[in-house]
Amino acid sequence: MTGAKWDQRAVALVELRGTTTDTDLLEEALAARGWPVLEKRAGPAGPLVDRRGWYVVEVRFPGSSFRAVTGARHRLEALAEELSLDLVVEAVDRVVRQAPERPVWHVARDQPMAWPPLPLVLNRRSIQWRLRRLGLLDRYPGDTGRQVRADSPGSARHLAARPLPGARPTPAGVDVRRSVKEAPLGFGGRRIARSLHFAGSLGLVLGAVGALAIARRPGSVPPELPGLLFLAGVLVAGVGAALRGVVAGARARSVLLVVVCSGTPAGVVAALVLGAAQPEIAARAAGGLGLAYMVLGGLRLLVRQASWRAVVPWLLPALLPFVPGLLPALGLSLPTLYLDAFGVAPEDVEVGVVPELAASLRMLAAVSVWLCAPALLGVLEHCHLMVRARWVGYTLFALCSVYAVAVGAVASVQPAVQAGRTARAAAAAGRTPAPYYGVEPEWVCVKPVETLAKVPVQGGELVGGRAYLLLGDADGTAVLWDRVTKEAVKAPLASLRLVPADDPRRACP
Predict the structure, then answer these.
(1) Separation between Cα atoms, residue 93 and residue 59, nearest integer Å
(2) Tens of pLDDT, residues 435-462
(3) 3 state DSSP class of 430
(4) In whole angstroms, what is the distance from residue 477 CA to residue 83 CA?
């Protein structure tokens, strides 16, 4: 693990009982993982004599700060179990280091203060002056280009005059000017970013929960629920972050930034969902966005905490449909299930490129439901729940995989089969079925170019004066469905003239 990315640091005091062989095993394992030994105390020992030794070890590992102390202890205990060592973690705590946010100062040549322009004058100088007063322009003509960070103007001047190797020498008589854009806000830029990220995440998760509730009980849940949950999550998290800033003594600018950045997207999404002409579609969009956010976030956590050799076997089954050679076959699966209700093979009906692409995207969305399983595994890894009792996480992964595959199959296959059955029932009753991903049924009257006896037919026979349901054609051969015999008939288009029928329950002229 040397050179690997890590997020957390923890210092642990461990006691080791064993011979010098056990000591060498522990030290080699710590060095291989990149965990430095900060202190070592051990009594005399030999290859055949046990001893007690204490190590102060810094454990470095990726993951969340939540349960980081437990994760560090579990990693050391898992290492002891792996090497069969008599090791006890006596104390462990997380290392917390954060650089202070000092203000930024620009180094500038000392020059007289510029007078404000006249109120009605609009030129380059007056516009720049007004932008600087508003804090939107942070550069002055006298700036040398150097920037320093310091707590006071005196420290900033000392750093401004300090020579740097390879840099241009600082001119004499320079002064410092505090940056307007990068001045500390009192609340901390990192804390603001974390607060906004948490607000957006909570809103997306609650929106996805509302969409799942609608999908489970379409009639009992209002379609505006995902938008309302998203709005509530973002506003509650944003207002909570702003209140914490007020309690911490933050400036009004930082509190206003949190409220505005949290409320603006929440208001926009809520307006779109609540004011949409079809709230169900907006609810599905909000739920899909939330689910995609959670799944992509979990996959990112899984990839960044594991090697490619360990990740590829999990993700490869879900990535196979994205292969260009398999994408057309995936897109034809829905029309195939639809045409199967009429007893027609998929190669007998030509489907357009655009409907095939739409069907492929729908199937990809259904197949991608399986990605929830590795995303769950990534979240468990991030929260340090896959260190010792890994079988629990893998059991949840297996259960989630089975459930996700079942949901994906039901969400993709069942609607296509049901659409085919509905279309067949409608055709048997003399109604025109609705189009489905490139298959556009149409009632037609069949008129031969010469006589019906000379028309080569496959699968049945053509009866004069009877309306047939045209399902499509391929390679110059039309596929017709007879509502009387409930059979599909194939005939060449060159031998027929197809005229739209107004009412298939009446005889054709």
Answers:
(1) 10
(2) 898 889 999 988 888 777 778 888 778 8
(3) coil
(4) 72
Structure token digits, residue 142:
């006298």
- Which has the closest alpha carbon to 256: 268, 271, 239? 239
- Give the Cα separation of 46 and 79 in Å (integer): 23
Distance CA 12, CA 92 (A): 4
Helices (H) and strands (E) counted in the chain, each on its own, are 14, 12
CB 108 within 8 A of CB 144: yes
In DSSP terms, 18 is beta-bridged to: 51
Residue 448 to residue 431: CA distance in whole angstroms: 24
> How far apart (Å, rounded) are the C-alpha atoms in residues 373 and 396?
8
Q: How far apart are CA 416 and CA 404, in angstroms?
A: 18
User: How far apart are the C-alpha atoms of 320 and 215, rounded to whole Å?
Assistant: 28
Say what the pTM is. Answer: 0.69
Other CB atoms within a 10 A radius of the CB of residue 263 amount to 18
DSSP state at residue 33: H
- Number of residues written out for the chain: 509
Pairing of strands 86-94, 477-482: unpaired
Which phi and psi (to 5°) does residue 261 adopt?
-65, -30
Q: Using DSSP, state whether 234 is helix, strand or coil.
A: helix
DSSP code at position 223: T
Kindly compute the dihedral angle of the four CA atoms of residues 145, 146, 147, 149, in this order, to the nearest 10 degrees: -170
Contacts of 336 (CB under 8 A, 6+ apart): 346
Pull the structure tokens for residue 394.
């893998």
Tokens in use for 281? 């579609």
Q: How far apart are CA 337 and CA 415, in angstroms?
A: 9
Instruction: Say if residues 135 and 257 touch (Cβ distance below 8 Å).
Output: no
Residue 236's alpha-carbon distances to 231, 260, 406, in angstroms, are 8, 13, 35
Cα–Cα distance measured from residue 301 to residue 195, given in angstroms and rounded to the nearest whole number: 19
As beta bridge partners, residue 104 has: 149
pLDDT in tens, 313-358: 656 665 555 555 555 666 678 888 888 888 888 888 888 888 888 8
Distance CA 133, CA 503 (A): 76
CA–CA separation, 237 vs 240, rounded Å? 5
Residue range 17-34, pLDDT digits in tens: 988 889 999 999 999 999
